[in-house]
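Researcher: We're reviewing a set of sequences before deciding which ones to prioritize for further study. For each one, I'd like a predicted 3D structure that I can look through quickly. This is C2H2-type domain-containing protein. If possible, include the structure in token form so it fits the rest of the review sheet.
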Amino acid sequence: MGLFGSNKNELKCKKCGTVLPDSERLKKHQEKAHNKKKEKCRVCGTEFDYSEDLRKHKKNCK
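Model: Here's the predicted structure for C2H2-type domain-containing protein, in token form for your review sheet.
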């Protein structure tokens, strides 16, 4: 069995069929591959591919 094997926890992207090992990776894949809208910081204007990255950035942006 390879990296992903036949793990029962594997999830398949409904849009492209990509198989990912867990829901967190599936979520990040879908944001990056299928949601072309970037998240933008309202304070400094920096753009992020992932909402999680923007959330982390906001903690330190002044």
